[in-house]
Write a structure and sequence with these properties.
21% strand, Arc Repressor Mutant, subunit A, 3-stranded antiparallel β-sheet
Length: 485
């Protein structure tokens, strides 16, 4: 019976079933050269210019494994708690595609680089541990570019610049039970890859791509249902939408008496539906066999420990560390959003000596500035927060100084000195201004003395105005209270 459903299932019908989801994530490694040749991997070069006989698949060209790609793959494995295998082997995965000039992909099959890992994804405050089956290395195919809509005007162009770019494929266990969990898993995985530095994970450049294996089963059942693969999900939002649709489609098929077919499907962003692409291949369809031009890969204990010792702290470790310093959950999420933000915050807080004050400043001021990390240094942020804390400048002054830093690239001290912005805290200097304001505000002074103490805010404002915003508000408050009795 066809796998197409007469209609999408109702919420009540969907509620009877449990989704079973596994994700295959391809991550492009941030190496300067390709995995089996010396061609550059830079994005945006003119088509078919970053190529050579190896990545063009010309007869007689031999691959040579990129050591740095292996190191990055090991870093990704360690960051996801995988066991790195001492011995792994490359294999040929045979299939034809216009942008795969060799006619096969060099990948790893039965002996991958790493296995048996996990990561924790958090949804609505609850952590879900999702297993990782394996991580293996492979080379990427080129890119097909389709142009035109009418048959007579339709052309396909092939750009082989991407052919041979190093990838890791991270295959999860079928542990995911909702689209929200899938979204959280992808978000955490992307953040980990960025923190470790193995990939920028820019989905618009194809540096992170996702396929999903989806099936449904009645709640309480142990046996998995027949799965369909949804390929080439190029954003986390679309991945979530595609999973929700595919679950509803499969439930509708079963509820209408049909049978879900094992197949490969694509998500149509315009319609919000998944559509059949081809029947699902099996491993034997690819005719895997060991790659004859590459020796097995061996990872020594010494090499593994060298890589392990150079690993940075992971996002989860940073979150725990910053929570321990008193930051709120929101602040922690903001300052650990990327490794750059985390490092900026940490360096700035070390300079200011105020972890919470720095977090407040970063989340309220810096985060709203485009390209803030390219224009504001951690030293500048930390110095500003320290000067606020020590009473040298006010919060209002700090905002003005920050804007000038953003525009000019100057340090806080340079701007403070050039604009004469140092806060007046000296009692003698302030006393003269306070006396003048009291003399000019007899009505407010009388109100204060008659018990309307809230009027002191007006008097403080007048002193700040007279001092061009440079008076220390706390010191002004104390002086006014002392003089007004």
């Amino acid at each position: 019976m066809s796998s197409s459903a007469p209609a999408i299932a109702t919420p009540e019908e969907i509620g009877k079933y449990e989704p079973v989801i596994g994700l295959e994530v391809h991550v492009q490694l941030n190496t300067r050269t390709k995995i089996f040749c010396g061609c550059p991997t830079g994005f945006g070069a003119p088509p078919n210019t970053n190529v050579c006989p190896v990545c063009l698949g010309l007869p007689g060209a031999l691959p040579v494994l990129n050591r740095r790609a292996v190191e990055m793959a090991i870093q990704a494995a360690l960051a996801t708690h995988c066991r790195v295998n001492e011995f792994s082997r490359f294999a040929r995965k045979n299939y034809f595609y216009p942008d795969l000039p060799k006619g096969y992909q060099i990948s790893q099959y039965d002996q991958p680089l790493a296995e048996h890992g996990w990561l924790d994804a958090e949804v609505d405050g609850a952590k879900k541990r999702i297993g990782i089956t394996r991580i293996h290395l492979e080379d990427d195919a080129g890119k097909s570019i389709h142009d035109g809509f009418k048959d007579s005007d339709r052309f396909t162009y092939v750009d082989l610049n991407r052919s041979g770019t190093p990838l890791i494929e991270i295959v999860s266990e079928p542990d995911i039970r909702s689209s929200d969990q899938a979204y959280a898993y992808l978000t955490e995985l992307k953040q980990i890859m960025q923190y470790v530095g193995v990939s920028e994970c820019d989905m618009e450049k194809g540096q992170l791509r996702c396929d999903a294996n989806v099936s449904v089963r009645l709640k309480g059942a142990e046996k998995f249902g027949t799965k369909a693969e949804v390929k080439n999900l190029n954003s986390f939002r679309f991945a979530k939408m595609a999973l929700d649709y595919e679950v509803a489609r499969q439930v509708a098929v079963i509820e209408s008496g049909g049978r879900v077919e094992q197949e490969t499907r694509l998500y149509n962003v315009a319609t919000g539906e998944t559509v059949g692409m081809r029947s699902k291949e099996h491993a034997h369809d690819y005719r895997y066999f060991p790659e004859p031009d590459l020796v097995p890969l061996r990872v020594s204990d010494a090499w593994l420990e060298e890589i392990r010792s150079s690993m940075p702290k992971l996002p989860s470790e940073k979150r725990e560390e910053f929570l321990g310093k008193g930051l709120s959950d929101y602040q922690v999420l903001v300052v650990t959003a990327s490794r750059r933000w985390s490092e900026h915050y940490e360096k700035a807080a070390a300079i200011s000596g105020d972890f919470i004050g720095t977090a407040n400043f970063v989340t309220s001021e810096l985060m709203g500035m485009p390209d803030a990390l390219d224009r504001i240094t951690p030293e500048g942020t930390g110095t500003l927060v320290r000067k606020i804390k020590e009473g040298e400048i006010s919060g209002k002054m700090a905002k003005h100084i920050l804007e000038k830093m953003y525009e000019t690239g100057e340090s806080p001290d340079q701007i403070i000195d050039s604009e004469g912005l140092r806060q007046i805290s000296d009692t003698g200097a302030l006393e003269k201004i306070v006396d003048e304001v009291i003399a000019q505000s007899p009505k407010q002074v009388e109100q204060y003395k008659s018990g309307k103490t809230g009027v002191i805010g007006y008097l403080v404002g007048q002193v700040m105005k007279a001092s061009k915003g440079q008076a220390n508000p706390a010191a002004v408050n104390e002086l006014l209270k002392a003089k007004l009795g």
